[in-house]
Amino acid sequence: MKVGKEGILGLTCAIEHYLTATKESGAEMVAKMTPFIDALNTLNGVTARVVWDSAGRDIARTEIKFDEATTGVGTGDLVNKLKQGEYAIYLPWLQGQRRDYRGGRAQREC
């Protein structure tokens, strides 16, 4: 496969942009996430907290846990409802879950 000049120029621009872009620190990420996490923690059956990147990078994420007994909604159903909302939300991964949610069920990995 031949790489064209447009592809090379596009890659060059992307690298230049990446190298000159202002990087956001983990502390800045946490400051942005805190109001969201606080709001989630007011909901029955929902707990949220900051978790840090497992590779040791300065990247903060929000971990959200749902208590099915309290919410009455299963993991698979919740994932599907998030996808079908006014603003579709797709989850990049679920810890301990496989990504197949057909039939409204998430399969737990051993």
Automatic annotation (TrEMBL):
Keywords recorded for this protein, A-Z: Pyridoxal phosphate
Cofactor: pyridoxal 5'-phosphate
Superkingdom, taxonomy of origin: Bacteria
GO molecular function, one term: L-seryl-tRNA(Sec) selenium transferase activity
Name recorded for this polypeptide: Pyridoxal phosphate-dependent enzyme
Organism: Enterobacter cancerogenus
